[in-house]
């Protein structure tokens, strides 16, 4: 194809990156949450790509928030759960984890799961997969009739030990499909031990898939004949047709694109230890890359556990659109509520009146009225000033100090999120480079690095749309997982690995991927006897004793100790992938790098050269256009560097050097 288009739909903006011309083209439009495809089609038209779309010269790779938003807003489809008789309350009982450990009278939390009908079917097999109560034709008929009475949009089937023998689930599923219902089987969605986690993943998939299918059908209708692929939560892409049936694998679709781009950036710069910080309009996503993207099977979306593989990421409600409010006790709060895309921050001039982080940055001068966000959204300083003034009045302090307080509080929220994925997991932030992206990230990167004692940071080229660009470079990928019997030998594992590989390869080849482009990675989940959490190690068919020795070493490295207990082989994982082949982005342009003008800015508390934030006391600092910077040019803070999709604030005691590839390498002085 001539053009590749990455499209990342966020809560505030929808970002576009186009590869295929002499230089990458970028664009932003405000998101349209009620119908996300409208913003995508607007962006395609704005970029003049309608012709390429009609001629079939465009490949679209999309990171979607539809499944995530549906889960968080309890807007999934009407779903029925089918399980074994006697355990109908399994998903509601869960693991007895309490959010407030010492609260003896916790308030019940009502979720969509409480409104989900559950049907018990009289069948059972034991922990070895042997049938105890066979599934009869009469039981299937009664189950189908019970489902009809509820008139659902989707059905989830989760039977005990179905990962050992899926025959009963498959018979039920076939009968319900013939009756016209979309069905999700736990033996297909997550064939592993843990009936609760497996059941939750299956219910989430059934609950969200109809919404995802409706959205993708509308999007495909408007973007045909362009190939459309969707980013999965594990960092690989999948064809839209298959993605519609795998909604549970799309819950971190958009953020995974940014990690792909960060990994590629680290390889180019020779930096393996990265902490990423993706600050958008609605939320901030942070993650740690220690040589590669880290995956987790213990993720959560809102109140729901998600055990399918997803990028190990921590998300908080702090973004450019986070609302600043003063409570009745006179304390300032920032987030997690957001102004979103509509009405947005007050300075957008679209009806918003409450102060946000973006408004505070504009009041402090770190955003300038001349900076048109996305190239076309003009900022209104007067509206930002009025919004922050109302906060300042309630706090009883000057407006600049209130604005700085909003920024400081937002920075502390984001710093704490970075501590969660580093210090709390045994990593020293000082050993890592902070990679900042997202439309708002560059305004806060120096402050966050300082808060964590970090001395190196990078703001990549096109940082404001890096997640969209990462989508284009993401590999096509399928991952298969299968629980292993307790006595699994090496020969059995090898046979099962070949079977899972054939399944994954067949799906990729069905999407048009040539067989010789597909590579395979095989992993084994191991744990000590009695443990519930696992560690994944590569599996090459070696002697099981070698795997156990490697597990002992990894466990000691990760947790500081090893145990003299038997090692269990829990799950086999097979990942097949084909690297993407988009057009080269080309060389970054080089300019003279002189300041475009000087802007009056209130300095932060750490700026020794700037006056403290008092009314009428600003310092003029240089403002650079990023596309005019020269290779190896060094810029000393305080300074502003702006581009249509983001602004970078270089604080005092920091400097930025322009990499030959146009990335900004930040170093504390």
Automatic annotation (TrEMBL):
Residues 5-179 form the Hydantoinase/oxoprolinase N-terminal domain. InterPro entries: Hydant_A_N, Hydantoinase_A, Oxoprolinase-like. Residues 580-619 are annotated as: Disordered. Residues 198-474 form the Hydantoinase A/oxoprolinase domain. It holds the Pfam family Hydantoinase_A. It comes from the Bacteria. This is N-methylhydantoinase A. It comes from Alloalcanivorax balearicus MACL04.
């Amino acid at each position: 194809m001539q053009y590749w288009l990455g499209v990342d739909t966020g809560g505030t903006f929808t970002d576009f990156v186009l590869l295929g011309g002499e230089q990458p083209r970028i664009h932003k439009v405000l998101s349209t949450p009620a119908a996300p495809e409208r913003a995508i089609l607007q962006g395609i038209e704005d970029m003049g790509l309608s012709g390429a779309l009609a001629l079939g010269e465009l490949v679209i790779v999309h990171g979607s928030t539809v499944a995530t938003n549906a889960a968080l807003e309890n807007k999934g489809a009407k779903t029925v759960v089918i399980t074994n008789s006697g355990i109908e309350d399994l998903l509601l009982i869960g693991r007895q984890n309490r959010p407030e450990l010492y609260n003896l009278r916790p308030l019940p939390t009502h979720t969509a799961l409480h409104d989900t009908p559950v049907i018990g079917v009289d069948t059972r097999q034991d922990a070895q997969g042997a049938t105890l109560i066979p599934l009869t034709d009469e039981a299937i008929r009664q189950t189908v009739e019970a489902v009809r009475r509820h008139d659902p949009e989707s059905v989830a089937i989760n039977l005990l030990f179905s990962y050992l023998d899926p025959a009963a689930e498959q018979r039920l599923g076939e009968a319900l499909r013939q009756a016209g219902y979309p069905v999700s089987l736990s033996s297909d969605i997550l064939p592993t031990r843990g009936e609760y986690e497996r059941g939750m993943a299956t219910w989430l998939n059934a609950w969200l898939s109809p919404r995802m299918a409706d959205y993708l059908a509308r999007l495909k209708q408007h973007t045909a004949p362009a190939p459309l692929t969707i980013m999965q939560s594990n960092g690989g892409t999948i064809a839209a047709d298959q993605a519609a049936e795998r909604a549970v694998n799309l819950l971190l679709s958009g953020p995974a694109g940014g990690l792909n781009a960060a990994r590629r950036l680290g390889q180019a710069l020779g930096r393996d230890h990265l902490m990423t910080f993706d600050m958008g309009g609605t939320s901030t996503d942070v993650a740690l890359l220690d040589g590669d993207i880290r995956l987790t099977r213990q993720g959560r979306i809102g109140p729901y556990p998600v055990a399918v593989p997803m990028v190990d990421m921590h998300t908080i409600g702090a973004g450019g659109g986070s609302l600043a409010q003063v409570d009745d006790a006179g304390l300032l709060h920032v987030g997690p509520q957001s102004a979103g895309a509509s009405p947005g921050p007050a300075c957008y001039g679209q009806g918003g009146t409450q102060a946000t982080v973006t408004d505070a940055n504009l009041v402090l001068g770190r955003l300038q009225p001349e900076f048109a966000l996305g190239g076309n959204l003009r900022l209104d300083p007067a509206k930002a000033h009025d919004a922050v003034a109302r906060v300042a009045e309630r706090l009883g302090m000057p407006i600049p100090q209130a604005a700085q307080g909003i920024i400081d509080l937002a920075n502390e929220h984001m710093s704490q999120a970075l501590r969660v994925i580093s210090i709390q997991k045994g990593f020293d932030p000082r050993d890592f480079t902070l990679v900042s992206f997202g439309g708002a990230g560059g305004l806060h990167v120096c402050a966050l690095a300082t808060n964590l004692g970090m001395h190196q940071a990078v703001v990549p080229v096109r940082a404001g749309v890096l997640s969209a660009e990462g989508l284009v470079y993401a590999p096509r990928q399928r991952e298969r997982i299968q629980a292993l019997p307790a006595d699994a030998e090496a020969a059995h594992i090898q046979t099962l690995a070949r079977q899972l590989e054939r399944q994954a390869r067949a799906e990729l080849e069905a999407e048009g991927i040539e067989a010789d482009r597909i590579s395979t990675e095989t992993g084994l989940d191991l744990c000590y006897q009695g443990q519930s959490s696992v560690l994944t190690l590569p599996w090459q068919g070696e002697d099981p004793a070698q795997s156990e020795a490697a597990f002992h070493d990894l466990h000691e490295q990760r947790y500081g100790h090893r145990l003299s207990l038997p090692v269990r082989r829990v799950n086999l994982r097979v990942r097949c992938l084909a690297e993407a082949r988009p057009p080269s982005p080309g060389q970054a342009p080089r300019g003279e790098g002189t300041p475009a003008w000087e802007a009056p800015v209130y300095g932060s508390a750490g700026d020794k050269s700037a006056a403290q934030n008092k009314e009428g006391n600003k310092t003029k600092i240089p403002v650079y256009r990023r596309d005019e910077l020269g290779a190896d040019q060094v810029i000393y803070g305080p300074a502003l560097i702006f581009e249509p999709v983001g602004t970078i604030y270089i604080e005092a005691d920091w400097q930025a050097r322009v990499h030959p590839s146009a990335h900004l390498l930040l170093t504390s002085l």
